[in-house]
Amino acid sequence: MKRLAGRLGTGLVAAGIATAIWVPSLHFFFTRPAVEFRAPTGLSTKARQLANRHLELWRDPKLRDGELKRMRASNAEWDFMGRSFLVWSLANIGLRDPAEKTVCLETMDRIIDETLRLEKQEGMCFFLMSYAKPSSYVVQPARSLFLDGEVALMLAARRLLEEKPEYKPLLAERVSLMATGLRGATDLVLESYPNECWMFDHCVALAALRAADHLDRSDHSALIRNWIAMAKQKLVHPESGLLVASFTARGKPLDGPEGSTLWFVCHCLQVLDDDFARDQYERARKELGEITAGFAYAHEWPRSWNGSPDIDSGPIIPVFDISAGSSGLAFIGASAFQDEEFLASLAATLDFAAFPSRRGQRLKYCASNQVGDAALLYAATLGPLWEKLKTQGAR
Amino acid sequence: MNDTNQPRKSRWWSAEFFSAKDFCRHGVLILLAFAGIHLLGLRESTSVLNGTTGAVNMNPDNAVLLGVLYVLLYLAAILLVPIFFITAGLLMLWEKFLASRRTPT
After folding, report:
1. H-run or E-run covering A197
2. CB–CB of B17 and A4 under 8 A?
3. Which of A255, A336, A371, B54 could bridge A78 with an S-S bond, Cβ 3.0-4.6 Å?
């Protein structure tokens, strides 16, 4: 008995020392410099491999159908957002690597044309969650800013890579609908779902207006300025200083700040109000970003807000309070603001916990899905598209 | 026949609880279990982490179960196994140290 107790004691001490050695060392096996995720120029190997996988999906209808079916079973929005992130990524890829431009343009056109066809054929609810009923929208006829904003930014991204005259009136139509809608609304907000407006969708829509100004010499700068002023005044969570995720059609906050919204919102703000974008990113990084034992992840909510897990946050991993949705989109924030330490540590977590699967020159993450991988691809390629909007002014 | 084989088997397999060999044995067992589940292609089932199933034709409950099983065995293989092997190494060093103190020079 005494011998067993002695062995237990020695074993526990040795296991404690082994844990203290191994846990802090583990990240060394996964951490690579941030440039291996997002190269300053050209394409990183990871970005190229992720892109290859997506291009394969759009070349092989059977493979694509399987992937989309799986996502649509959980959330029809993901089908749509997977298309948006991929189109925006392909625009950046085409700008980064001119050798890829032709393939990028062909794929972008295929995605945009099919998305517009499905929207027209099946109605706006095809890409929305089941609770979206056109008759329940406050503003009639019902439109979803979620769809209009992302479609507009897809069309603009395609035209920023290379002009396509057929898309000019399509972009102008969406821009006019959004701008007229926002100006006509009492509180400068538009619905994505019945009496539900989202910060993410508004910032995408405003970035699309900025892109349209660049392409077509229109001027929505006053509308953008007024919207930012309204958001700063009415849509900021007082305790954290972060923008809230959703609000009613009267501009009354619903959800508080959410990581699954904020990281991308910060990125969109870069072409709308750079100082405000930086302020929001720094706050989000402080309130939501975390690095533990060399691995980075993100919370969905700041400590001052109690939210409930939903389809956007993804499952919340207890103890560390890790949100899959927020952590995935944190890549976009870290990449956009060149937060190298955070980006490298997020990439370490990705390779450690998202189960990469490589086949030939193609990469996917098994713990992710098409929309998740498309968002990662966007984070790995972003830059040139926004640079055009920020530095060149009107074309 | 059985009698001659038995001691050999037990020598290979048996280990005192919490001994260096015991830690190594558990480490190897976990690695074998993980290798088995990995070779069965269950890495795909980890898509349950984002709320989608690995395969559309699979019962969602089974998909969750398989995904969680893969994640747990992966974490055990990558976190526990190295800890077990380091522990075993430390215990062996400790035993060696004790033995050297017991042996008169």
Report:
1. strand A197-198
2. yes
3. A371
Confidence of residue B11 (pLDDT cuts 50, 70, 90): low
ipTM tops 0.90: no
Tokens encoding A281: 């990113």
**Higher-scoring residue by pLDDT: A264, A61:** A264
Average pLDDT over residues A103-121: 97
| pLDDT of residue B3 exceeding 80 | no
CB atoms A369 and B94 under 8 Å: no
**Rounded Cα gap, residues A375 and B2, in angstroms:** 61
- Domain positions in chain B: 21-102
Q: What is the pLDDT of residue B9?
A: 54
What length is written for chain A? 395
Interface-testing mutation among A1, A10, A312, A322, with chain B (most B C-beta atoms within 10 A): A10
Q: What is the mean pLDDT of residues A31-39?
A: 96
- The closest CB to that of A74, out of B19, B52, B91, belongs to B52
Interaxial angle between packed helices A76-96 and A370-381, expressed in degrees from 0 to 180 and rounded to the nearest 10 = 30
Residue A148: φ, ψ to 5°: -60, -45
d(CA A7, CA B21): 12
Single out the residue of A333, A306, A310, A304 nearest to residue A237, CA to CA: A304
Structure tokens at A262: 């904020």
Residues of A (51-70) whose Cβ lies below 8 Å from B? 66, 69-70
Q: Got the DSSP string for A328-394?
A: HHHHHHHHHTT-HHHHHHHHHHHHHHS-EEEETTEEEETTS-HHHHHHHHHHHH-SHHHHHHHHS--
User: The whole model's pTM is what?
Assistant: 0.92
Is pLDDT at A395 greater than 50 in this prediction?
no
Chain A CB contacts of B44 under 8 Å are 357, 366
Reported as a pLDDT band with limits 50, 70 and 90, residue A30 is very high
Tokens of A147: 């769809």
Residue of B nearest to A356 (CA): B43
pLDDT at A6: 85
Helices H / strands E in chain A, number of each: 15, 8
**Is residue B4 predicted with pLDDT exceeding 70?**
no
At B66, the amino acid letter reads: L
CB pairs under 8 A between A and B: 88
Closest-CA residue of chain B to A22: B83
**What secondary structure does DSSP assign to A276-297, as a single string?**
HHHHHHHHHHHHTEEEETTEEE
Neighbours of A382 (CB within 10 A): 22
> Whole-angstrom Cα distance, residue A289 to residue B46?
24
pLDDT in tens, A370-391: 999 999 999 999 999 999 998 7
